[in-house]
């Protein structure tokens, strides 16, 4: 059963578990639709994570006790009409793994004992689930990695990670949608813009989507608008 805790006067957090797990992520995804459908514009924002969901509500129209009651009723309701269609969407992301952009590839090879070709194969031959959209629009946390390429974050984060960089950290992979500080191990770069300004979520991918990385060469990377 989900655990609901207050964060402040107009925000609650709903916990569905305590680990990164496909079943828990599915519960979070279903809950987004259940709560939106049942509560409508009483809810002002929903921010999903791996195993929880932050819900902000209109304090002028309801209070914490009423909203918790409504959320529990929504989560206990028949979910057939709120089935999450995002899990059926597979997004292909082209990635150039060349040495000019794979800033930490050698370090990843040293840590894993694999050669560059094997790291690329392990990374690109897997389908990932979008577990959460993170600290900036379009920053999607994807899991889980092949165990052979699980590596720790960098001990000293970069002050500026190039836009489009594809990185590894623990059992996750992600794409930097903009140039920001970061400590992920960078193994490639996509020419795609991960922020979609035409989308309500601003992100090219959404929670629940599946992602596959497709290796491309330098020529295709540049033709698609990539910057070295």
Q: Assign the CATH architecture of the largest domain.
A: Beta Barrel
Residue windows where pLDDT falls under 50 for at least 5 positions: none
CATH level-3 fold name of the largest domain: Cyclophilin
Give, in spatial order, the strands making up the sheet with the most strands. Answer: 5-13-6-7-10-9-12
Proportion of beta-strand residues: 25-35%
The outline comes out as elongated
Helix content: 10-25%
Biggest sheet features: 7 strands, mixed
CATH superfamily of the largest domain: Cyclophilin-like
The value of Rg in angstroms is 19 Å
Return the structural class.
alpha+beta
| Overall average pLDDT | 89
Name of the top-level CATH class of the largest domain: Mainly Beta
Distance between the termini: 48 Å
Mind explaining what this structure looks like?
Pfam families: CT_C_D. GO terms for molecular function: ATP binding; hydrolase activity. Keywords: ATP-binding, Hydrolase, Nucleotide-binding. This is Allophanate hydrolase. The chain is α+β, with helices and mostly antiparallel strands and 228 residues long. It folds into 2 domains: 3-84, Gyrase A, domain 2 (2-Layer Sandwich); 87-223, Cyclophilin-like (Cyclophilin, Beta Barrel). 24% of the residues lie in helices and 30% in strands. The strands form 3 sheets. The protein has a 7-stranded mixed beta sheet. A 4-stranded antiparallel beta sheet has the order 1-2-4-3, with helices on one face. Strand 6 and strand 7 form a beta hairpin. Helix 1 (22-39) packs across helix 2 (64-76).
């Amino acid at each position: 059963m989900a655990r609901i805790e207050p964060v402040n006067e107009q925000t609650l957090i709903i916990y569905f578990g305590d680990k990164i797990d496909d079943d828990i992520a599915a519960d979070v995804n279903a809950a987004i639709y259940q709560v939106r459908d049942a509560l409508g514009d009483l809810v002002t924002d929903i921010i999903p994570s791996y195993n929880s969901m932050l819900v902000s509500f209109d304090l002028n129209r309801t209070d914490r006790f009423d909203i918790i009651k409504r959320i529990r009723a929504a989560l206990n309701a028949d979910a057939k009409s709120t089935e999450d269609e995002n899990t059926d969407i597979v997004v292909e992301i082209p990635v150039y793994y060349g040495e000019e952009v794979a800033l930490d590839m050698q370090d990843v090879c040293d840590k894993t004992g694999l050669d560059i070709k094997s790291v690329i194969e392990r990374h690109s031959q897997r389908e990932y689930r979008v577990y959460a959209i993170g600290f900036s629009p379009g920053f999607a946390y994807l899991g889980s990695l092949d165990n052979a390429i699980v590596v720790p974050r960098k001990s000293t984060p970069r002050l500026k990670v190039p836009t489009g960089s594809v990185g590894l950290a623990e059992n996750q992979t992600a794409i930097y949608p903009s140039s920001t500080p970061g400590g992920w191990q960078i193994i490639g770069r996509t020419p795609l813009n991960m922020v979609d300004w035409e989308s309500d979520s601003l992100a090219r991918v959404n929670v629940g989507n599946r992602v596959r990385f497709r290796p491309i060469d330098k020529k295709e990377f540049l033709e698609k608008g990539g910057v070295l």
